[in-house]
Amino acid sequence: MSSSQNQPVIQLEDGWNNVIKKGAIDVLERTLDDGFDTSFEPKEYIRIYTTCYDMCTQRSPYNWSRDLYQRHGETIEAYLRNTVLPALQDKTGQGGTILLNELKHRWSNHQIMNKWLRKFFTYLDRYYVKHHSLPTLEMAGLHHFKSEIYQNCKENTTSAIISLIDEEREGEIIDKTLVKSIAELFESMGTGSLDAYTFDLETPLLEATRSYYGRKREDWIAKDSTPDYLIKAEKALGEEKTRVMEYLNPSTEPKIRKVVEDEILQKVQTNLLEKEGSGCSVLLANDKTDDLQRMFHLFSRLENGLQPMANIVEKFITAQGNACIEKRQAKLDSGEKDKNDDPEFVKSLIDLHEKYLSVIRETFASHHLFQKALKNSFEEIVNNDVGQYSNAELMSTFCDRILKSGGEKLSEAEVEQSLDRIVQLFSFLTDKDLFAEIYRNQLAKRLLNQRSASDDAEKALIAKLKVQCGTQFTSKMEGMLNDLAVGSEQKNEFDQRMEQHGDTKLSFGVQVLTIGNWPSYKAPEVALPAQMSKCMEVFKEWHDAKHQKRRLTWVHSLGNATVRATYGKKFYDLQVTTLQAVVLAAFDNGQTYGFTELKDKLNLDDITLKPIMHSLSCGKQKVITKSPAGNKITSTDSFSPNAKFTCNMRKIRIPVASVESSHNKNRVEEDRSVAIEAAIVRIMKARKTLSHQQLVAEVLSQLAFFKPQPRVIKKRIEALIDREYLERSSENSQQYNVSLLISFWRCNPSLFFASYNFLRYVLIKSVPCLSGE
Predict the structure, then answer these.
(1) Spatial separation of the C-alpha atoms in residues 342 and 346, rounded to whole Å
(2) How far apart are alpha carbons 230 and 239 in whole angstroms?
């Protein structure tokens, strides 16, 4: 019998037994078992391949494709069942490494056999398998290995791998290449997925890892300090990551990391953070930067792991700040006089903030939780006032020391650094409006008394405050500096006018100030000497010609003068205030005055005159004699020039105590009330209806310069209801509605302000100017 090409037909048994089995399969099994290299001569390979090809291409009923596919699987199954499986079973119980090495060897042999059989049956794989949608020969061989070998030894293999990994964790050296090969075998058994690897190797490994590190955790926590524990934890996490990279699938890394983190960090986090003698607070107190960094990085791995640590940091910083406050309180309790100038206290807060700001930046990588902890702690510290003077006033006075001449002796760089740090501290202050009021008064004194050390430094601090709080906060301060800049130009022009006016014997200058920018000052109507009055008339005539719509108000309490005084044959230049100069002029002819008589002559009240007379008659330089002698001024005293006055200096400065306070508390409270009411009106105008809690919350969010208590806001709401700007809901007493009055304002705001001029905080008027001698 022959084919259509007159070639002899190859019978199934003849082709299989004489060529394929004898020439290929037996040779493969023999060489693999003996451990020799498996290869075929080209001539032999072609003979076997051709036989397989012919058997698959013969016409039916002599096409043996189905039979060859079936015998291919049976051959592999028989070899695996009869040769490979017994060999592996013999190695079970002789040690994990022996079993794994045998499995590695048998897996390698199987791959070689599968490769050669696939080559011999290429035509079968290419056409018959594809046409009948059967598993490829390679996949079929893999399935046979999985069912015959893998399913029977996977548990022992997994146990052997876990045992080797535990040995490595204890510091022993293992064959990593062997473990990697077996891990790849598990991956191959998934036939395109990681299911076999995940369920048969990874899951048991994770459970074993959890158990291993659970035991380690109990051992470490019992005998190690927190830093030592964290060093071991960091090392363990690093080793597990390396272990996965070296011989496990990369998908295992996040899972095993989570298990280790949970066991050695999450379950003992509170214990580690609060451990006596080595917890987070102790590390902060001892400036253990490396240990804190390690703690931060390790706990940042955990979900919400940094919040407990940030809470401890916040409490610690707050405690450090409270220690500074307690130190100040102890000084006051010991009898030390309370002053608005306590640079030591302010510097201690600045240094504390600078220190822990650096810790937050460098140790905790400026993490937002720790920035919030720093903010919360310093808001509590900075707003905890001790003694008569608020921290806002102490901070403002500290700025005054830096900026005024004769204050702190600092270089330009040190001034800049100090201003940066005090503004950082200022940012935590709740009563920013109080600071602004005090600082504006002190700035005015520096500028008007020419005690400012540097105009550039003044501008720099105002610019920093502007960045923190906005233009509204610093507009008046900027206006003060602008007044002086404009005033210098006007002064030069007026000096020329004075030179043309030859009937005045005084050197006279005027500083014109915008009343809306500067603090309010008393303006006593003092009876001036004729020469002073003449100079004022000349200036008023010149000023009115230039600025017809301005009205001048003379504030003599802010002026200064140099008075030439002659005692015997010596003369002195007395540097005094304008009011002191007026008083000295009254004694020009050597008269003696009683206090009441002098008060009536000069048209001054007791409050103004007593400090002046005290400075002239009771101070270090007694240019006036008081009778009777004493350090207290009474209405029965009499005064006369001190004919015996002598001094080694020619220029003498005679200071006078100021009766002006650094700020007007009532004015601050009044401004706050107006600001709260303005915020309420703005909110209700936009929202129409709000509950009490919602309104209070929105008011607090809008007030940038201070944070009133809810009861204060409630009081302002009641005041607005009384004045019919708001009304309570008829259905709910805790809900407010916008009144018809506010609705009317929306339509005609000019009429609203004309009729109800209470929102001074909102309305900005054009004001006349103030001039000071």
Answers:
(1) 7
(2) 14
**The dihedral of CA 331, 336, 339, 343: what is its sign?**
negative
Confidence of residue 256 (pLDDT cuts 50, 70, 90): very high
3-state DSSP of 675-716: HHHHHHHHHHHHHCEEEHHHHHHHHHHHCCCCCCCHHHHHHH
Q: Is-contact 736 744, C-beta < 8 A?
A: no
- How many Å apart are CA 595 and CA 637, to the nearest integer? 6
Which tokens belong to 67? Answer: 């039979």
What one-character DSSP code corresponds to residue 733? T
Distance CA 702, CA 676 (A): 9
Three-state helix/strand/coil letters over 634-651: CCCCEEEECCCCCCCCCE
pLDDT of 754: 35
Distances (CA, A) of 127 to 64, 106, 115: 13, 30, 18
Note the pTM of the prediction, 2 decimals.
0.77
Reported as a single tens digit per residue, the pLDDT across 102-155 is: 888 888 888 888 888 888 777 777 777 788 888 887 888 888 888 888 888 889
Whole-number Å distance between alpha carbons of 457 and 455:
5
Cα separation, 663 vs 435, in Å, equals 9
Tokens 């009021």 sit at which residue? Answer: 437
In angstroms, the CA 280 to CA 260 distance is 22
pLDDT tens digit string along 452-479? Answer: 888 899 999 999 999 988 888 899 899 8
d(C-alpha 628, C-alpha 635), whole Å: 11
480 residue type, one letter: M
Could you tell me the pLDDT band of residue 311, with boundaries at 50, 70 and 90?
Answer: very high
Angle (CA) 85-86-87 rounded to 5° is 90
Q: What share of the chain is helix, strand, coil (3-state, %, to 5)?
A: 65, 5, 30
Contacts of 674 (CB under 8 A, 6+ apart): 758, 759, 760, 761
Is-contact 80 149, C-beta < 8 A? yes
Helical (H) or strand (E) element with 772 = strand 769-772
* 172-224 residue pLDDT tens: 999 999 999 999 999 988 888 889 999 999 999 999 999 999 999 999 999 99
Contact 310, 366 (CB under 8 A): no
Rounded to the nearest 5°, which phi and psi values hold at 112?
A: -65, -45
